[in-house]
Every structure is written in C-alpha cells, then in structure tokens.
Amino acid sequence: MSTVTQVTINFAELRQCVSISEEQLLELVAEGILTPEAGTLPEEWRFASTSVSLVHKAERLHRDLTVEWADIPLVLGLLEEVEQLKAENAYLKQRLGRFLQDEQS
C-alpha cells in the first residue's frame, strides 16, 4: 500500500516562490483565497505546495483582468467548475461513441 506525502511550505518560502509582497500574501489569506494547512500566526503557517500555482492564478486574475481580490475565490471556483464540466463532457462523449459503435455492430 502506497502513502501519499503532502508537501508543505512555510509563509516565507511561499512568498519567495510567488514573488509577491508580504502584504499581498496576507491579503490572499484574509480574503480566503489561500488557507494555511497549519499554524495560527504567519510565521507558523504551513501551506500545501499546490498553493504556489493557486497564488499565481490569483495574481494573474488580479493583474491581467483587474479582478478584485475579494472576487477571486468566486472566479477560481467557476474556473474549477468549468474544468470539471469539460472532463465530464469528454467522458460522456467517449461513452456515447462506444454506445453508437455497439449499436452499429
């Protein structure tokens, strides 16, 4: 049986990885865009390593599309839902294709 290890990074490491200011990162946490996995104070916070890509997405939405920080959780949720719907659509198209092939046989 294999075990998946969750890699975490601290606040300072996350800040270095994403190259944004401490204030911006604190705002992401305050807005609920980013949630620490552990710790109660910024110097104790631990984040999932996937937080790096999440911060990059949030920052791009804010910078390129001028989405307000408070609206980013909604936008990210909608983007995730679109991806899930695309995957479901592809799966259903595949099943439909098999069904049509079986029907023609």
Characterization of this structure:
There is one protein chain. The chain is mainly alpha-helical and 105 residues long. It has one domain (8-104): Multidrug-efflux Transporter Regulator, Chain: A, Domain 2 (Orthogonal Bundle). 61% of the residues lie in helices and 6% in strands. It is built from four helices and two strands; from the N terminus they run βααβαα. The protein has helices spanning 11-18, 22-30, 51-64, 72-104; strands at residues 8-10, 46-48. A two-stranded antiparallel ribbon has the order 1-2. The longest helix has 33 residues, at 72-104. The mean pLDDT is 91.
What oligomeric state do these chains adopt? single chain
Span between N and C termini? 41 Å
Radius of gyration, in angstroms, nearest whole number: 19 Å
What is the CATH C level class, in words?
Mainly Alpha
Q: Which structural class best describes the helix and strand composition? A: mainly alpha
* Main beta-sheet strand count, sense and barrel state: 2 strands, antiparallel
CATH topology: Multidrug-efflux Transporter Regulator, Chain: A, Domain 2
Strand content is 5-15%
| CATH architecture descriptor text | Orthogonal Bundle
Q: Spell out the helices and strands N to C.
A: EHHEHH
Number of DSSP helices?
4
Strand order of the largest sheet: 1-2
Approximately how much helix is present in the residues? 55-70%
Q: Tally of extended strands?
A: 2
Quickly count the domains.
Answer: 1
